[in-house]
Amino acid sequence: MTLYRLRRSAVRPPDATKSVRSHFVLLRACKRSRAADAMENGCASHGDDNLAFLQKMLDDYKGQDNFNRVARKVTAVSATDQRIVVELTVEHEHVNGKGTLHGGQTASLVDIVTARAVGMTVRDRGMVSVELAVSYLLPVKLGETILIEGIVLKCGRNIAFTECEFRRKTDGALVAKGKHTLAFMHKPVANQF
Fold it and tell me: Which UniProt key words apply to this protein (predicted)?
């Protein structure tokens, strides 16, 4: 939300009744809803098509042979304008030599899931990573299912701040937590997802 600072001289016209009236007009003009700010910054609400849009983005990974293939087995659970939840059952291709979810797989999923959370509202601009960090709290064993929640903390004009949580589906235990900062590209990018 944009904050405005009023100078006393700007709201003190010679006529006292005009002063009060202009002060309220100025205050009304300064009050802006989060939705208006989001629309201005390219973070518009898309309503009920969020889950279908998320599933389409995830389905696009199934045919890719680039690094995004790490998200092939991810399925959509829920989606709103600034929060998504996806699910992954850990299979042999996702584990390290100890039979637990590979740290690189986890970091890649933080990148992908948080970018998709931002992509729920910013659908026409490419994004690049600025910073990504992951904390690994518990191991996830082969065959376990995890729920991954991506949340947009702030979506600005040029940068988005996100976080991500990985939880075991069986007991809700927090197994990993990530944060991801993304910068928007200035020109629209075709096939960014």
Answer: Hydrolase
**Is the residue at 128 inside a domain?**
yes
DSSP 14-82: SSHHHHHHHHHHHHHHH---HHHHHHHTT----GGGHHHHHHHHHHHHHT--SGGGGGTT-EEEEE-SS
On whether the pTM is more than 0.85, the answer is: no
Dump pLDDT digits (tens) for 53-71. 888 888 888 878 888 888 8
Amino acid occupying residue 79: A
Answer yes or no: is 1 within a domain: no
- Single-letter amino acid, residue 167: R
Number of domains in the chain: 2
Q: Is residue 2 situated within a structural domain?
A: no
Q: What angle do CA 118, 123, 124 make, to 5 degrees?
A: 130
9-33 pLDDT, tens digit each: 444 445 544 444 444 343 333 333 3
